[in-house]
Amino acid sequence: AQSVTQLGSHVSVSEGALVLLRCNYSSSVPPYLFWYVQYPNQGLQLLLKYTTGATLVKGINGFEAEFKKSETSFHLTKPSAHMSDAAEYFCAVSRGNFGNEKLTFGTGTRLTIIP
Amino acid sequence: SQTIHQWPATLVQPVGSPLSLECTVEGTSNPNLYWYRQAAGRGLQLLFYSVGIGQISSEVPQNLSASRPQDRQFILSSKKLLLSDSGFYLCAWSNFLSGNTIYFGEGSWLTVV
User: Fold this and answer.
1) Which residue in chain A has the smallest CA separation from B105?
2) Contact A42 B109 (CB under 8 A)
3) Are A107 and B32 a contacting pair at CB < 8 A?
4) Fewest CB atoms within 10 Å of the CB: A40, A42, A43, A49?
5) Residue B83 Cα, gap to closest chain A Cα (Å)
6) Do residues B83 and B74 lie in contact, with contact meaning Cβ atoms separated by under 8 Å?
7) Which of A32, A44, A46 is closest, CB to CB, to B90?
8) What pLDDT digit, counting tens, does each position of B28-62 carry?
9) Measuring CA to CA, which residue among B89, B81, B72 is closest to residue A41?
10) In degrees, to the nearest 5, what angle opens at C-alpha B18 toward C-alphas B7 and B37?
11) Could you read off the pLDDT of A15-45 as tens digits, one per residue?
């Protein structure tokens, strides 16, 4: 079974400050990991994903995440927050290449940017 | 490129009325298709997924059903809506070409009154 825990349902950062959104997962098989962003009243947009290979993955809008197997974490970061980053962010895990593409989502983190 | 269309975008329905939400995918073939629900203040819950025409798996017992009459068409239905069916419904697709990545539609807001 898989599960995802996102620490902090609400995170506020000042414009220009570091963004850090935390995600921990559990999986019985090597996972594929994803971050999605959801702007108000819209669907989910893929930010980045980790499948295999390099553990530091870069995504759109200046975001990146690092897969740390020893810590079972996949935290999302951005060096300098922008007002347009205000949205809800979801971490998700799938069973990778074991033929099951269903995602298990975390409960989401709402990011607020303070001017 | 692949696109996913979902409609209607917004729906207000009385309790006990039927529901039909439609989703189509273009630019790919043999996709896996999904229906997710996002209730207010909560995460995403997988309702149904389909690996082929007529093949539907239900993840949770509920008042809803799904059908896949064509390869790239996925329909979410209910015969009689409940207040608890209100929420944001998202259709999504994936296949081997997407590299195990699931892509979402724009969502449909359902308010049951």
Assistant:
1) A43
2) no
3) no
4) A40
5) 20
6) no
7) A44
8) 888 999 999 987 666 788 899 999 999 999 888 78
9) B89
10) 55
11) 999 999 999 999 877 889 999 999 988 889 9
